[in-house]
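INFO batch 0412 | record 1 of 1 | parsing
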Amino acid sequence: MLYKSRIAGRRRIELVAIDWSGVISDDRRPVYEANMRILESRGIPRLKFDEWLPITQPGPAEFLAANGVTGNRAAIYEEYSAILAKVREEGISPVAYPDAKKILDRLAEAVQIVVISSHPRKHLVAEAAEYGISGCFRGLTGSVKDKGEAIRSACAENRREPGSTVYVGDMTYDILAARRAGARSAAVTTGYHVKERLAREAPDFIYDSLTELLAGLDPLLRR
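INFO prediction complete | emitting tokens
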């Protein structure tokens, strides 16, 4: 189902910037496990998956800090990245959403696409290759701490105005980042934050899948 805000506008979309986790790749289980192992290594009890999901933060360092893991955030992020790789080796792996490849292939025919994610870049590259979608993107930017700044940088690098850019994400933080960058926001409900929570931040668009996103944005895509 599609929701549109009054500010969505009819300006053509020339650049699609897109989050990874919860949008293209369903990595909630491995991300959860990596976070919980770090908590346990500090003597902090693990949460149940359904307890963790509603309190997820923009990135692992923020979540861990909010739950008692102190120290240098860069070092904590490196620890998280290494544990996430180990979790994947053990078979707790992310999977592409069922419609991701088909929709991204079609979207790439109409408009430039870049990935902007807090997910470690090496995992972005590996997963994109695994899913067979590496060729869909003009760039893969990972380990992002400020998505608003990253969206502005992507616009400059691709010679596009923020007003002709849409950022696709699955968390309220993504909506706010797009707003800070002057871009439009498209929220999908397949990831970390539920529809009701996303709707409270008044994104320009809300979609229940990538398939709905392509259908909804199609009239605005630059060709």
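INFO post-check: Strands lie at 3-4, 15-18, 25-26, 95-96, 112-116, 139-141, 165-169, 184-188, 205-207.
INFO record closed
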